[in-house]
Amino acid sequence: MEQTETEVIIEAQPGLRFVDWREVKEFKDLLYFLVLRDIKVLYHQTVLGFGWAILRPLLGMIVFTVIFGKLAKLPSDGIPYPIFSYSALIPWTYFSSTLTSSTQSLVTQANIFTKVYFPRIFIPLTSVFAKLVDFAIAFGLLVFIMIYYGYAPTIKILLLPPLIVMLLLTASGMAMWLSALAINYRDVKHAVEFLAQLLMYSAPVVWPASLIPSKYRILYGFYPMAGIIEGFRSAIIGTRSIPWDLVITGSVGAVILFISGALYFKQTERYFADIA
Q1: By the number of CB atoms within 10 A of the CB, which of 102, 111, 121, 172 ranks highest?
Q2: To 10 degrees, the CA torsion angle through 89, 135, 109, 45?
Q3: What's the pLDDT score for residue 10?
């Protein structure tokens, strides 16, 4: 019996492409495995292990308290400077660590995606989800700091989940942008450390957003980390009103960053295997 051959033609899709959520759902088990692998190897053969998740923001809090709180005497809106800075360092440390690790993710894991097909977007997003473990551990220490300074959670703590989603969108957007740029332009990795420092001092980590003149607050709010950090302080400490102007505009900025990052990643991923 004569067999007929089936010819399959694969053509590039025209126009802008976004994330194929059905494909993501199909390969979700692989994403889970990649995240679990990252968590396991993150502190492999280290003495302190997950203790580094606490030590990094804790040391940052001590340094910032001495330099900016005691010596420079920057205002902290009536909040003890250690809890003022630590509540900001929790989201900031998560954001900066995902920024650093995701940038080189495509370059360092080229041997994986050039041999086996799976959604390439999983590679930069792995860091985004894996770093949530550090985030949760660092957040646990905040409970003891609040008890020490006599602060108790209020109803405003319910704002934390939306702020965490906002943080995830911001980190994911930056991860997709930087990883796609880094595989095309290898000098991006050298600029990331400078970019992280610039973004940190642009965010209200060591200084309060109340220093921003009111006429510039809406414009400044489109930097998502401003609303995230100030929102975290208000939700956790509970003695300040929620900065809705920064949170709302920051949410818009986070969504724009995520969508644009996903579009750029999807448009450039067809060339990854050729230039990796």
Answers
A1: 102
A2: 100
A3: 44
